[in-house]
């Protein structure tokens, strides 16, 4: 009996977790939206409303650092490879090598395409010297 229930619980978990996260994030953001609407009702200047919305904007303004992401991905690949070599076999070794290769490619992209303002300025100045 319990052997038949486990797959059903596994499938239901795959459905319930994303739905619960969606509901949780909706309710977390709902309070912020209501606060912004209430404050905006009492502001007459549109520039102040824009600044208020900018305060609630939680997106990162900094560009993505591909070098950091590449190092992390590389070492995740090394970990998966070692897990396969020690415990699970050739399949995990192959997956680990694939993930590690993706990490190396991401690191190379981070060095080829500078993303911070200072790096871009240095790259432009170096190009102008030529």
Word description of this protein:
- This protein starts with a helix and ends with a helix.
- Helix 1 packs antiparallel against helix 2 and helix 3 (66-88) runs antiparallel to helix 4 (90-112).
- With 130 residues, the chain is mainly α.
- The chain contains five helices and no strands.
- It has helices at 2-42, 46-56, 66-88, 90-112, 117-129.
- It has two domains: 2-56; 66-125.
Overall body shape: flat
Query: What does the largest sheet look like?
Result: none
| Rg value | 24 Å
Ranges with pLDDT <50 over ≥5 residues? none
Short description:
With 130 residues, the chain is mostly helical. It has helices spanning 2-42, 46-56, 66-88, 90-112, 117-129.
Question: Which properties best describe this structure?
Answer:
130 residues; mainly alpha; 2 domains
Secondary-structure blueprint:
Elements: H1 2-42, H2 46-56, H3 66-88, H4 90-112, H5 117-129
